[in-house]
Amino acid sequence: xxxxxxxxxxxxxxxxxxxxxxxxxxxxxxxxxxxxxxxxxxxxxxxxxxxxxxxxxxxxxxxxxxxxxxxxxxxxxxxxxxxxxxxxxxxxxxxxxxxxxxxxxxxxxxxxxxxxxxxxxxxxxxxxxxxxxxxxxxxxxxxxxxxxxxxxxxxxxxxxxxxxxxxxxxxxxxxxxxxxxxxxxxxxxxxxxxxxxxxxxxxxxxxxxxxxxxxxxxxxxxxxxxxxxxxxxxxxxxxxxxxxxxxxxxxxxxxxxxxxxxxxxxxxxxxxxxxxxxxxxxxxxxxxxxxxxxxxxxxxxxxxxxxxxxxxxxxxxxxxxxxxxxxxxxxxxxxxxxxxxxxxxxxxxxxxxxxxxxxxxxxxxxxxxxxxxxxxxxxxxxxxxxxxxxxxxxxxxxxxxxxxxxxx
Length: 408
Fold this sequence. Notes:
InterPro entries: Acyl-CoA_DH_C, Acyl-CoA_Oxase/DH_mid-dom_sf, AcylCo_DH-like_C, AcylCoA_DH/ox_N, AcylCoA_DH/ox_N_sf, AcylCoA_DH/oxidase_NM_dom_sf. With 408 residues, the chain is an alpha+beta fold. It is 48% helix and 12% strand.
């Protein structure tokens, strides 16, 4: 089944191409509005979000990080995180899809050779590729056979966000009888890749995050990211995948929370009734309602400000990757861990507590206010937030820096 956006969309070809950060944020707000209009109905339908991904492409958001000379936005990560936040406020699933896409679009810069980076970004921008990824580290490693000029991926991954809506998929595996990990970008639509359509979770229902089987996916060695003559030269910058993806998570957690809070406030202004014993005529005059919105808004604003600050702190790293030291990377990851912990707590609180100020009639399935909490609750289990707090605590107490892993 395919999702169909149930209202007219915008003809983005009639709009000027955004150039500045504020113009891109305004474009993201426009996309947010289009998604929010029927987000509850599409969440209930749970259909493959082809139309939603087409919207992201038409709006230019999929090439936000792409080179301007090839038609991309030429933006940097602080803007990208804020764009993800806006889109997620309209639809948490689509915010996650965009965030993961931008991560994998950028991943060539993380591990690729200069020639690979230029080639991938040019082609991905010109063709408006939408990226998916099959890189779940909790599964057994995908096995790679070295067959001379080619490598061949075989195995299974439990999660493959983007799956059927992606044009290309990032694969990761280990060359058999070695500890050599290899990333590669491959076409998603090929006989050797089977997406199983088994994503059936309570939240983030439209992320196409089901399992995938790789049955002999062939890749030329020259396309193995970062390899020359079958040898990979490691850099400290290779370990920046975790700080970036964790800030992507923060972005759509905060976006979902903001969407919940703003949609709840709109409902409270128009539909929530004052309590019959309050002596008040309007819910917006109820002291406990005012206090709750003030409390939740203040907490959300604080974490948004921290997220923006941590994103800005990483700009020198991304602009000069070869200058990154292990200590600078570790200190940045501690800051990322801190904002990830706070974003998790605040997003869960906001999406749960809004019901206190909505009233019983707002629990109808048609309004689907529960989708905000379901979306946050589902993805915040990605990795235990206690381990993020541990990174911060160990650094404060004994100056310990996180050891780079798939999660730290």
